[in-house]
């Protein structure tokens, strides 16, 4: 069940908003499966091609540290995932939501949509004003 959800997210996943990914984990820690699976998925050709400039760093430690993923976005924000008790699906859902929110391409499209809607509303308001003005003039005369 989770496998199908992961595939569904990965089909539309992109790294356009990501500048740097840092994976830190101890391979002998009992809860590293999710971070290792995500590391594998982030190196898939389709994902890498969405932003080939992403720097991926893997820190493998032997000090029983908790697994973490540090994500730096192009807008300067940073997000840290402590993946000890998270599944691969949990991490992907949160990371995908953050990438969609910070995607520069989507922001440009969103701003363009707002501009179009603003122009349409201005034309509608002007049309309504003219029709109300004409009705007022007709009633006065």
List keywords for this structure.
141 residues, alpha+beta, Glutaredoxin, 2 domains, four-stranded mixed beta sheet, 5 helices, 55% helix, elongated
Task: Characterise the protein shown here.
The protein is of the alpha+beta class. The chain folds into two domains: 2-102, Glutaredoxin (3-Layer(aba) Sandwich), CATH 3.40.30; 103-141. Helices cover 55% and strands 18% of the residues. A hairpin with a 4-residue loop joins strand 3 and strand 4 (78-82). Helix 2 crosses helix 4. The relative contact order is 0.17.
Largest beta-sheet details: 4 strands, mixed
**Beta-strand content estimate:** 15-25%
CATH topology label of the largest domain? Glutaredoxin
By CATH's scheme, which homologous superfamily of the largest domain applies? Glutaredoxin
What percent of residues adopt helix (DSSP H or I)? 40-55%
Strand ordering within the main sheet: 2-1-3-4
Shape: elongated
Assign the CATH class of the largest domain: Alpha Beta
Number of strands: 4
- Rg over C-alpha atoms, rounded to the nearest angstrom: 24 Å
Question: What oligomeric state is this?
Answer: single chain
Q: Quick check: average pLDDT?
A: 82
Helix and strand layout, with pairings?
Blueprint lengths: L1 H11 L5 E8 L7 H10 L2 H4 L6 E6 L7 E6 L4 E5 L5 H15 L1 H37 L1
Parallel strand pairs: 1-2
Antiparallel strand pairs: 1-3, 3-4
Helix pairs in contact: 1-4, 2-4
Would you summarize the structure shown here?
This protein folds into two domains: 2-102, Glutaredoxin (3-Layer(aba) Sandwich), CATH 3.40.30; 103-141.
């Amino acid at each position: 069940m989770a496998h199908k959800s992961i595939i569904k997210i990965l089909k539309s996943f992109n790294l356009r908003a990501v500048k740097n990914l840092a994976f830190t984990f101890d391979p002998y820690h009992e809860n590293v499966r999710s971070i290792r699976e995500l590391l594998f998925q982030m190196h898939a050709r389709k994902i890498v091609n969405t932003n080939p400039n992403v720097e991926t760093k893997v820190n493998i430690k032997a000090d029983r540290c908790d697994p973490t993923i540090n994500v730096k976005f192009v807008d300067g924000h940073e997000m840290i995932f402590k993946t000890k008790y998270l599944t691969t699906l949990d991490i992907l859902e949160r990371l995908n939501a953050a990438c969609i929110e910070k995607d520069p391409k989507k922001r440009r499209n969103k701003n363009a949509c707002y501009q179009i809607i603003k122009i349409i509303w201005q034309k509608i308001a002007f049309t309504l004003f003219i029709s109300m003005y004409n009705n007022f003039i007709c009633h006065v005369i």
